[in-house]
Amino acid sequence: MQFAWKKMTAAFIGASILLSANFMNVEAAAMTTQNKKPQKIVQTAGRTQLGEFAPDFARYNDDILFGEVWSKNDVLPLHDRSIVTVCALVSSGIIDSSLKYHLQSAKNNGVTKAEMAEIITQLGFYAGWPKAWGAFNMAKEVYAEPANAAAAKTEAPAKMSKEAFQQEIMFPIGQPNDAYAKYFIGQSYLAPISTQQVPIYNVTFEPSCRNNWHIHHAKSGGGQMLICVGGRGWYQEEGKPAVELLPGTVVNIPANVKHWHGAAADSWMSHLAIEVEGTETSNEWCEPVSDEEYKKLK
Fold this sequence. Notes:
Layout lengths: L1 H34 L9 H6 L4 H16 L7 H14 L5 H12 L4 H15 L1 H15 L18 H5 L8 E2 L7 E2 L2 E7 L5 E6 L4 E2 L2 E4 L2 E2 L2 E8 L1 E5 L5 E3 L4 E4 L5 E5 L5 E7 L2 E2 L2 E4 L5 H4 L4
Antiparallel strand pairs: 1-3, 2-5, 3-4, 4-13, 6-15, 7-14, 8-11, 8-13, 9-10, 9-12
């Protein structure tokens, strides 16, 4: 009996020591976090992309979201903020360039490849298996790059495979667009979505692929509508600045206007192409978009 009592006493003392040690470690970690000087986060994407169109939104993005919220990293470390942000984007089904940016940030903020794999695996159960698949395809691309590769100007961006991009979009990529290949720089693909009532085709461009300048002629009516359904790209009318295409972007192309469209240099892009009914319609293919013009787009 006395021996059993001694064992119980020893176990109690041991547990108390362990609990005290854990408490001290937690308290020390909290003090370290509190004493850590916050790192100021500087962001300019809002003003660069939306400064003229939506100056208030640009200011909220750059000065409030990043300048204040992300900069409170003395309270919640950048490592943890990156995890929260990736989880929010994947759960919302946002598997696009914004997720890739935050995956790269997570990597730069110390989220390891093993941690990211566990995070996305658990998200698969709570947010949905297809979302996890899409996130994994993008995470594999990011974690295959050296740290800070997105900011390194000497390294080319990693190229997502066609199969990985197909996981991100709801429409089929289709077959190589061989019939119109002479009017494209790079590889494009074509998939018929609807061939009755209103003809609709999904056109997919590999990174850097774009079509030549062209015109949809019509005596009346005519033109074309584009709806971006995946990736990132560009649309430009002659004499006007290029417009960035992101999922959900709708472009109404008037008849008789010279224009071109295609993927960004670092991203695949798919859009639905819808022909607008008109009279005496025809298409005129013009000169290619030069590398000099194209490389000015970021």
